[in-house]
Structures are given as C-alpha cells and as structure tokens.
Amino acid sequence: MTTNTIPVAGRPTAPVAAPRLSAEPRRSAARMIGLDLARALAVIGMFYAHVGRKQEFVLLDASTWDGIVVGRSSALFVILSGLGLGLMTRGRTGDALATRRREIVYRGVFLFFVGGVLVTLGVHISIILATYAVLFWLALPLFSLSRRALVAVAVGAALVGPFANAAAVALITRFGDPDAEFSKLLATGNYPVLIWIAYLAAGIAIGRLALDSRDTARRMLAAGAALMLAYPVAWVLGAITGTVFDGFGAVVTAGGVPAAGDADRDAWGWAWSDAYRYLGAQPHSGTQLEIIGNIGFALTLIGTCLLVGAAAPRLFAPIARMGRMSLSLYCLHIAAVFVLLHTVQDSRQEAWLETDWRGTAMWLAFTVGAFVFATLWFRSRSAGPLEGIMRRLPARLENRGR
C-alpha cells in the first residue's frame, strides 16, 4: 500500500445461504460465494501487503513468495470492482441503465468522501478510494458497450495507458506540481487513473461473462495463465538487455550501465534510462507487462474461486463472508493501523512494520479479527456496515430530489 484497494461495486443482497428452489438460484449462490471468496483472499492479501514484508516475488526463490500480494492485491480489487459494476449493469438499457449509472455516481461520491476521511489519518498506506471514485465516474460510458468493445477498451488502456501516463507526468513536471493531490490522482501517485482504468474495464468485461458456468471459469483459468506469461517475458527482456529494477519498477541498471540519476533529468523529468522501465513488470511500475500479468493473475484467481465455490459452497461460505464486507474491512484496518502506530514510538514504527515476526503477527491478528467480525455481523445482517450505507444512499438521495 503502498499497495492497496477494495471492491465496492454492487452485488445482490440476498443471503447466500438462504434455501434455493431451483438449479439456477443454486448456481447463482455458488457464483456469489466464489466471487466473495476472491474478494476475501484479496482482503487477506491486502492486509499482508500493508503490514508484512515489502519484497518482490521471485518464482524460483520460495522465501519471497509472500511478495506475490504486493501490487496484485490492489489490481485484483479494482478488477473485482469492475466485475461488480458489470453485474450491476449487464442486460440493462434505457431508463434501467440510467438508474444504475446514477447509483454508481452516488457510490463514487461516497467513496471519495470516505477516502478523504481516511487520508486525514496520515497512515503510511496510500488510500485508493479517491481513485475508485474517479474510475467509477470514468466508467459510466462503458456500461452500454458490448463485451467485445469492453475487451478492446481494456486492451487499449493496458497498451496505451502507461505511455499516456508518462506524457501526463512529463507535462505536470514541466508546468505543474507533481505532489498536488489532483496530479497524484491523475498520473503521479500510486494509483493513477490513466493506468488503473485498464483494470476496471477488464473487470466490467469479465462481469458480462456467464460466471455461473464451469466452462467459463475454466476458460478464465486458461486465459489467465496465458496472460501471466507477461511476468517471465519481463524477466527474459531484462536479462537480455542487462536491465535491473528495484522492487517497484525503478531502473537501477539500463543496458548494463547505471541508470541516469535525478541530476541528469531534463525539465520534463525525462532521462534516457526511463525507456528501459517498460521492459519490467514489478509491482506498481505501471508498465504494459505488469498490467497484463496482473489481469492474468486476477483471471486465474477468480476462475479458481468460482470453481471451488461451486464445488463446495458450504465449506467456503464462512471465509467468503469477509469478501462481502471488503470496504468496511478496508476502512477498519486503516483505522487499526492508525491506532497501532500511535501506540508505538516514532523511532520504532518502521521496525514494527517491517520486522518479519511483527508484521506477520499483525497480519494474523487482522485476518482473524476480520473473520470473527464478519461471522458475527452476518448472523443478523445481509450487508457490511459501510456497504449497507452505500447501497441505501442512492435511493435516499433520489427520494430527496423529488
């Protein structure tokens, strides 16, 4: 969080464990358990990305495998949010689609407000909710597109977005303030909308699939495995060109020689070695290969969760409950980190967050706490605390406007 984020798009509010009268509702319930399971895993990964070790995942080094959550958890959340938006708007036209669009606008406003509140806490975690809000608003024209058109938008955003973002960064560096909040939201922050719109568009396209079908889940697994080849491709390109990256995509060695330093950059913020960064796929690097690989990772995980959710819904339903309140758990864990940091001396905060056993202990505490909270909450309620407010908000605002 510097990895972060959460799916907050719509989902049916009917309890997944309610009795079903036909095969189709049973399949739909299993689908929702599968999607909520994917969200729950993203929540667990997010916890670790925020309080565990910050290291790059290396397939051939088992000691780094916990680094798989860094960067991928946040991308997974945005894709799942897009998937939720796709489910909300699929098959709707005319007034029905217009109503859904207004609901999404209101949800974006709510997320923007909640994100602003969390930013005031000043924790070390980058808050993604403002990016969510803007992505929701930017996605409004996409809901009337066909699945093929959505795929084309996602592909175009994945390929062009990194270059558009680099151009925006150059313009902001030359004529503006890269540290301004709008600049961070657009291009210079950890979650620039010019890049992350690719994940949301991909999620909306996934939401148009027949997610109740096992064949669809299997095709998602195959497509995800193919797209994840972007990771080894990046490794091969780096080896061939003599390019070495740090853990977040900055170029250390370009073409076998040290990369240009800050003093070598021009007035636009460019340096010759920046061209080499597009060969990598490190977390939060925002390159084409990272975006493609992250989408592949999300497809693989979602497809797997759909299959296991359909195979054993009762077994995975308890864990899936965490996914049903991912927004609430996200905000609660930010508040918990805020409280914890204010109980530890400033000189020890970095050690507390980075030391292996302390980070692992915090992660386990967050995970167990979230599981217990979700279990108790859903005994008498059908939506998480913030999720319930967000779903009721559009209707209340609409009624007030009449």
Automatic annotation (TrEMBL):
Q: PANTHER family given for it? A: HYPOTHETICAL MEMBRANE SPANNING PROTEIN, INNER MEMBRANE PROTEIN
Q: Indicate what this protein is called per its UniProt record.
A: DUF418 domain-containing protein
TM stretches of this protein: 29-49, 69-88, 104-121, 127-143, 150-173, 193-211, 223-245, 291-315, 327-345, 357-378
- Where's the Heparan-alpha-glucosaminide N-acetyltransferase catalytic domain? 31-233
Keyword list, A-Z: Membrane, Transmembrane, Transmembrane helix
Q: Where is the signal peptide?
A: none
Q: Which organism is it from?
A: Tsukamurella pseudospumae
Indicate the segments forming the DUF418 domain, all copies.
Answer: 284-393
